[in-house]
Automatic annotation (TrEMBL):
Superkingdom classification of source: Bacteria
The protein's name: Sulfatase
InterPro entries in the cross-refs: Alkaline_phosphatase_core_sf
UniProt keywords, alphabetically: Membrane, Transmembrane, Transmembrane helix
Length: 534
């Protein structure tokens, strides 16, 4: 029992010191290394007197446990958001993660996940402290053997480091824990510096003082829709497992638009976020600043930087509305974005079931927009921001399109939701999750284009795009951040104004289409649709 306890303690500490921060790097070769931090720690414990040694051992164990928890958070964030955990900014996202689990898998699953996370955190801290204390006590009782072993391991580490010895491309002499600590400290420093620098950048606005009568003169009289399709990324168009179905949908939609007298141009935008945090993509697109973290988002929405939507409001020539089915509580940012009225999930009259995280099908959200705003008589044209959520992970169950006359209050979707696939069955299957993701994009695109063809007219202008790429489980490890963007209009003059952009005909850009940073769109759009220069 004593030998087993000591062995498990060594294994736990060894695992903590060598645990990679990315799921794809966790393989046997990652643990065929000698951690220099363990050698240094053992040396320190051998030199300390008994009482001090035990105190230091417990503290070291707690610190090592905390670093392990941060490593686990890094693994999760890299898997879902394509980046590591930011210890300054990302704690608020843990609450969002709990809400996502509840919405996607149910309240019981969310409660179990939350309890499990707390138990795991406490267990890691306690067990790591006990493990280091156990190793310390064994070393103290076997001082001569511990000293020789530490000396031998230290010598081997130095030799391996000097010779660059590797196993399967991984250095045997490891200093990964020290490197991770240094990296985290550097990230904290950069985050704090970025907060100060971004505040200066956000204070400068090319169009901040432009009078309303000089904004968007090229779109006067048009009903303009800015529509974001959740997780609609380049993967949907280029991944061989997904592209055939999405490609057929886009090709068919382009043909239907052309037949109805519409035309489309498309290109690529590089999103500021990946896998999630959709609001960062929305704000980057609309505000014209690179908003890739929550601190930047708070800074800019607390100021008066001109958003694209507020530019429409400033003209006085449009009624501006937001259709936000993903918003389930107060959203004060609506005022910053210049929206005269915001319809969130509670205002759209939906009486059907949720589709996992998505509060309602996209077709219903669009039908509600028609009923509440677009289909009514106004003394001004509409500018609308519409967020479509049916393609949000975990991509099950997926709604299906139905005749617009049957949408009603959404009750019809109960049978559709009940017949759909279960989120857990899809999300945990690496093949199935790609298939269902593709189907969800097809549904969202079809719903949107069908809405334009059913309710649009010669004054309709649609700008639609993805907010970010899907998570790595679908898009692949280290995927890019590009998303498709398209402008659809019936009036040829609208598309003539962007003839210099180099965008391609139709809804499906190929590899040769221009790629812009998403933050550049606002100024390009305002420039294209502003007064023509003599």
């Amino acid at each position: 029992m004593a030998w087993a306890t000591t062995g498990l303690s060594l294994a736990l500490v060894f695992l903590a010191l060598l645990l990679p921060a990315e799921l794809t790097l966790i393989e046997p070769t990652a643990f065929l290394r000698i951690p220099v931090e363990g050698i240094c720690g053992a040396t320190l414990l051998l030199l300390l007197p008994s009482r001090a040694r035990r105190v230091v051992a417990v503290l070291a164990g707690v610190v090592l446990g905390a670093l392990t928890l941060l490593n686990l958070l890094d693994i999760g964030f890299n898997e879902f958001l394509g980046r590591g955990f930011n210890v300054v900014l990302d704690w608020i996202l843990l609450d969002d993660a709990e809400s996502y689990v509840e919405d996607a898998f149910g309240g019981t699953a969310a409660t179990l996940a939350m309890v499990g996370a707390v138990v795991l955190a406490v267990a890691v801290l306690v067990l790591m402290a006990l493990a280091v204390l156990r190793i310390s006590d064994v070393m103290a009782r076997n001082g001569a053997v511990a000293t020789r072993t530490t000396l031998v391991l230290g010598t081997v580490w130095v030799v391996c480091a000097a010779l660059g010895v590797q196993v399967a491309g991984v250095p045997v002499a490891s200093r990964s824990t020290a490197a991770l600590v240094q990296d985290r400290a550097e990230r904290v420093r950069k985050t704090l510096a970025d907060e100060r620098e971004f505040a200066k950048v956000a204070a400068v606005d090319t169009y901040g003082d432009t009078p309303g009568d000089q904004l968007l003169t090229g779109l006067r009289g048009k009903d303009v829709m800015f529509t974001f399709i959740e997780s609609y990324g380049r993967t949907a168009i280029e991944d061989p497992r997904i592209a055939p179905g999405v490609g057929r949908t886009l090709k068919n939609a382009t043909e239907r638009l052309t037949k109805a007298g519409f035309a489309a141009r498309s290109g690529w935008l590089t999103s500021a976020t990946y896998g999630g945090s959709s609001w960062l993509g929305h704000s980057t697109f609309l505000i014209g600043l690179w908003i890739d973290n929550q601190n930047r988002y708070r800074t800019v929405t607390a100021g008066d930087h001109l958003s694209l939507t507020r530019a429409f409001q400033r003209t006085g020539a449009w009624r501006t509305v937001g259709i936000m089915p993903g918003v389930q509580k107060a959203w004060p940012e609506g005022r910053f974005y210049g929206l005269d009225h915001v319809y969130d999930s509670r205002d759209l009259g939906y009486q059907g079931p949720k589709f996992s995280w998505s509060t309602m099908p996209d077709q219903y959200a669009l039908a509600a927009f028609e009923r509440l705003e677009h289909g009514r008589k106004h003394d001004k044209p509409l500018m609308s921001e519409i967020i479509l959520t049916s393609s949000h992970q975990p991509w099950a169950p997926i709604p299906r399109t139905i005749p617009w006359s049957e949408v009603g209050d959404g009750s019809v979707y109960r049978a559709i939701q009940k017949a759909g696939k279960k989120p857990a069955d899809v999300f945990t299957d690496t093949t199935e999750v790609k298939t269902e993701y593709g189907k969800s994009i097809q549904y969202s695109v079809h719903s949107l284009i069908d809405y334009v063809l059913t309710y649009g007219d010669e004054n309709t202008v649609l700008v639609f795009l993805g907010d970010h790429q899907p998570l790595a489980r679908v898009s692949g490890d280290h995927a890019g951040r590009d998303v498709p963007v398209a402008i659809v209009a019936h009036d040829e003059a609208v598309l003539d104004r962007i003839s210099g952009w180099g965008w391609q005909d139709g809804l499906m850009p190929d590899a040769k289409a221009p790629v812009w940073k998403m933050s550049s769109f606002r100024d390009r759009f305002l420039d294209a649709y502003g007064p023509r220069q003599p």
